[in-house]
Amino acid sequence: MDRNEQIQKAKLAEQAERYDDMASSMKAVTECGGELSSEERTSSVYKNVVGARRSKITKEYKEKVESELQSICETVLALLGKFLIPSSTSTESQVFYLKMKGDYYRYLAEVASGEARTKTIEDSQQAYQEAFDIR
Questions:
Q1: 14-3-3 domain spans which residues (predicted)?
Q2: N or C: which end of the chain has fewer CB within 10 A?
């Protein structure tokens, strides 16, 4: 393909939001040699290609961290429910562990959605209320 055909191909790819194809065409245009026009120089093709990858990295990293957070919270809640709360004998430790339970459910709620979020918020409120009701 000649330079003009590659430019047209790049423009079509841009309209279709196929930025990888657009980048490939503009790379071919650049490799043809010669000076790029103002429109060709200001093309945001690689910015779009890189931006999409950056967004993907951000999303994947967020999902990874949320998964780690959920795992940690579930571990703490299991320890609280199976060992710490049942074995606490003083009012102070009971209140402390119930507040802690409410906190960890709240942390889970921050990354949950839909019905899971609603349920987690309710569990958090219940733990806080139990701690508050101890006199």
A1: 3-134
A2: C
- Cα gap 2→102, rounded to integer Å: 66
Containing H/E element for 99? helix 91-111
Burial class (CB in 10 A: 0-12, 13-18, 19+), 84: middle
Handedness of CA 25, 30, 31, 33 (dihedral sign): positive
Q: Domains of the chain: which residue ranges? A: 1-43, 60-135
83: Cα within 13 Å, side-chain hemisphere:
5
